[in-house]
Amino acid sequence: MKSSVWHPNTQMKEWESFDKITKGKGVWLIDSKGNKMIDAVASMWCNVWGHSNPQLITAITEQTKKLQHSSLFNLTNEPAEKLANTLVKISPKMHKVFYSDNGSSAMEIAIKMALQYWKNIGNKKKTEIATLENGYHGDTFGSMSVGYVPEFFGKFKRQLFSTIQFPVPNKYRIPNGFTVTDYQNHCLEKIENRFSKNNNIAAFVMESGAQVAGGVIIYPKGFQFKISQLCKKYDVLFVLDEIATGFGRLGSMTQYEEQKSIPDIVSYGKMLTGGYLTMAATLANKKIYDSFLGEFNDWTHLFHGHTYTGNPIAAAVANENLNMYKKSNLIKKIQKTSKVFDEFYEELSKMDIVGDIRYKGMLMGIELVENKKEKTPIHPRKSINKIFFEEGKKQGIYLRTLGNIVMLVPPLAITEKELRLLLQKTIKTIQSAKPKVV
Ligand SMILES: Cc1ncc(COP(=O)(O)O)c(C=O)c1O
């Protein structure tokens, strides 16, 4: 049967058909022909416990018997209340939780909260948003504006709202004449110079711990902390996106705690429901929340809401997911399992098309280059994604590359044995893909 589906971020002309996934079990995806593939991207970075987890399935089915959906407009529901309490508990200094159903929306809400905060307290000057170059916060217009990746968003540049962007230190591509520390200081100086010149900046928005879609750029030590300090010094709201990096992806529950950089607003998504249903959350501290309180006719309340905000089934599975994090001490497990990446570093780095390997927690980015010395990114005629998808499938892994970067973002609870197998298969995939990309 002819498919009517238009696939995301895909040159449809390149693909004749797509494999139909009919089952998932643990870290494996199984297609309609019975082929098994390790889900190396955790189904777009969200799967935590693997597929078909009985506890999560029970949480969903039990909740569907009671209440499938009822809105948070004028009403509330028990799973959403319970989840908000838990999220506040695991998020130091956060006070209230605003629900949405995807990460892009969670970031739109964060931006609206930040901009409206200054209006609520009567400051008309602070209207600008500062960000880091190369950030990614989603595909809607607001989230594209704060996270400009030229290849993704260039076509819409005119329609995006303007932001003030600062460079980010990428240890692999530090400009000539700088050490990593010098360049980090240079980036921070740029921020401070701008902050001190004009106090019209409402918020600084950045991914927490690392830029993931922007190429697995793991910040040098102290970078995020120092930005948070500058925000404090110059009275700029600090807004963090933990959608891809929180909940254990980089090895800690919240990256902002690890980075000692407490935000005013933080967004979660992806792993929140264990990767089973669509839900995201934007958390605000008391200062932000209190500014929205007033008489009805003050019009200081937050003008935002979605049909499925606080969906009880999504909240129920998120509650069970977080319960499982605690019970199985998942964060400790990730810290231990992820040491497997070290075992493969040398072998990977010897490969002649591998320019750089960046990894932290349960995330690895392998940057492919044509010329190791020149660091020239690989740029074949066909998309690297398509080539690697096909070669990965032959080896039994589901891969989706990002530009010239092979992403390993497996389900967080992957075992050491499974992670070793994934890395062995990745090495074989790179070897077999090489003649097609250079
Ligand atoms: C850091 C970050 N923020 C926001 C988003 C957008 O989330 P969603 O795809 O759920 O809209 C993503 C998605 O990859 C992301 O990586």
What would you note in describing this structure?
It is a single chain. With 438 residues, the chain is α/β, with parallel strands linked by helices. It folds into 2 domains: 12-52 and 332-437, Aspartate Aminotransferase, domain 1 (Alpha-Beta Complex); 58-327, 3-Layer(aba) Sandwich (Aspartate Aminotransferase, domain 2). Helices cover 38% and strands 17% of the residues. The protein has helices spanning 42-45, 54-66, 78-90, 103-120, 141-146, 150-153, 180-197, 223-233, 255-258, 286-291, 312-327, 330-337, 340-350, 384-395, 416-437, and strands at 21-25, 28-31, 36-39, 96-100, 128-132, 164-166, 201-207, 210-211, 217-218, 237-241, 265-268, 280-284, 354-360, 363-371, 376-377, 397-398, 405-408. The strands form 4 sheets. A 7-stranded mixed beta sheet has the order 4-12-11-10-7-5-6, with helices on both faces. It has a 4-stranded mixed beta sheet with strand order 1-2-3-16. Helix 9 links the parallel strand 10 and strand 11. Helix 2 runs antiparallel to helix 11 and helix 7 (180-197) packs parallel to helix 8. The longest helix has 22 residues, at 416-437. The protein is globular, with a radius of gyration of 22 Å. The model has no long low-confidence stretch (mean pLDDT 97). The structure holds pyridoxal-5'-phosphate. Pyridoxal-5'-phosphate is lined by residues 102-104, 107, 136-138, 207, 212-213, 241, 243-244, 269.
